[in-house]
Structure prediction request, 771 residues.
Amino acid sequence: MNQPHANPDAVTAALEETRGGLARADYLCSEDVATAVFLALQLNKPVLIEGPPGVGKTELAHATARWLGRPLIRMQCYEGLDESKALYEWKYGKQLLYTQVLKDKLGDLMQGAQGLKESLARLHEFDDTFFAPEFLEPRPLLKALWAQHGAILLVDEIDKADQEFEAFLLEMLQDYQISIPELGTIKAKVPPICFLTSNNTRELGDALKRRCLHLHIPYPSLALEQQIISLKVPVLAAALREQVVSLVQALRKLDLKKAPAVSETIDWARTLVLLHASELEPGIVRRTLNVLLKFQDDIQLADTELTGLLAASLKPPHAR
Amino acid sequence: MSLVLGRFLQALRAAEVRVSSSEGMDAARAFAVLGLADRALLKRGLGQVLAKTTEDKLRFDDCFEQFFRSEDFAALESDLAAPVEPDFAAPAVETQLTGPRAEALETMLREGDRAGLQLALAQAAEAARVQEIRLFTQRGLYARRMLEAMGVVAVEQRMAAFRAAGDQASAAALQASLAQLREEVTAHVERQIVLLTANAGTRLREEILREVPLSRAEHSDFALMQTLVRKLARRLVALHSRRRRVDDRGRLDVRHTLRRNIQHDGLLFDIVWKQRRIDRPKVVAVCDVSGSVASMARFLLLFLYSVSEVLPKVRAFVFSAELAEVTTLFETLPVEDAVATTLKRHGWGSTDYGRALSQLREKVLDEIDHRTTVLILGDGRSNHGDPGHRDLHRIHERAGRVVWLNPEPRVFWNTGDSEMRRLSAACDQVESCRSLRQLETIINALMRMRT
Prediction:
């Protein structure tokens, strides 16, 4: 394990490739994120992503899928999620239908059988017909294992699922396999790349954390957020973009119930484009504040602070 | 796994970052993939593999900065490029007194070969097994061992020889560089102590504090006690917030089963079992803060505060003579201020259980129902006044459970003005609660209560 150590240039190049690839998939990321994706690909480990809502946790999985050209399989977690919705289900209807249709055939088969014992013996020859992969309805996890050329599996908001479900994911995350009693163990042809996201509404189990790389995505820095906005809303004028981003960054420092995330910055930038705003003036900001802030208390607080915030963000950057 | 990484994991564990062996293996793979060239990259990568919570991340960052200090990094790298397997079987100090290594050391000292010295230092640290150091008082011993492993004795002999031959200049030069080397070695050993034993003392003290009676805890331990109490409360809540529904195996829930199987033409494919809900209890906590239990009150309040932070429905009261609600105080102020303010406003009076309990009855009786747990923390010493057991009886009739925690050991109950006999008749559970460990056990049982 000790030697050989990776060629430093190759590592840097690979990281750049990861970043570039994600950027081509319209996802600009910090070095932390690039490292995590790179490691996930190298070590074949799932990534557990935490962070405030709206910083692009889910989007990272989407972008990785676009970059690698693999299908994204998304599983939204909620309380009460169980195997039959996450893993597989038998197609009861189809099984029933087939038994009905095959009734006549069954009669033919049984013809000439002497007594119950012989009939049963004959039936046993066909015993597993109805528990074959054809009658299996694959749910997200199984789909991810069956994907021919690998897939990106996104387990969204794992913290919303029950504790039992977490335990049930462990086999999947560690060995990329699942056990179906009737069929045996199904192993992935190509291990899927797994992303798990969590909003930290509850503490996740240690066992799950142990099996994952842990990535925390914070709110982006000023420079990164500017780049993101220029990528997502290219029509927004550069000067206005600077004002928008610095105002949002200032808002995040206020004591808000829910700070505006990147997704809200993007929405706001789009709103401003729609309204043909040429610069941030108090009137237009007040009217559109509800795009950024989702609680009345927050809006009121921001409203009172607005003059100061605007003055600060309208100043050219070198004056700050 | 590389030696350096192994040491680093050891240091991480000493810093209380929980690293399992499977994570260690992942770290080794990440280490091999990332290489040592880019320090920031290595830090990010290892951080993602090894540190899984915010607190762990902070500790990890500290530990990483200390362990892979920038100037050591180059030395580590050359160390890895030409790995030297240390001889663990025997330090073999004697063989190194003279011989090539001593010669080399002298040359390096004379020529000021920094990189060479760093490498030799790292190797000597291995040979002297500095990583086994546990106590601060051992640092002289280990420093000496390291120096001997580097071949210092021979160099000293050379120095003496120079002196004897009258070559004072060479002797002085050698002495100066030797002194510098000593300093570096000592610094290295001390850094190892900091890394490896950072938390050992704290852990030992925590272990003791758990068992020691709360009333006897030293003032100097308050800070540590505080973190302990919070740890305890957090663990209890983490433990219990998860299991809110438990299958009642073996009892069929007919209604749900039929409902769910309508899609299969009423054939019962899916079977639903009856479930029992385990509710987080509503808690009404009353804490005696009078003079007689003052030494304990601080911790009880601390615990109360921590619990009300994590459980949604806790109403907290304190009394010495008058009963006062401190729920809002707890909600608005940070813990130190809340506890201090409570004690200042309401503490240190003389106890009047009769008055306090009748006021409690007036204030909360309407809210108490079969899901409520009433938790009373106090010594039950009523100064020969009315113990208020009649009011407690009324509360007991309505409440799901009444638990009395008494900081005195059981043998002191019912002596002097203690009214525990009469009061305990109106309680479901009476416990002596003298240490954090007992407190934990009791609260644990409390939260598991089924309703």
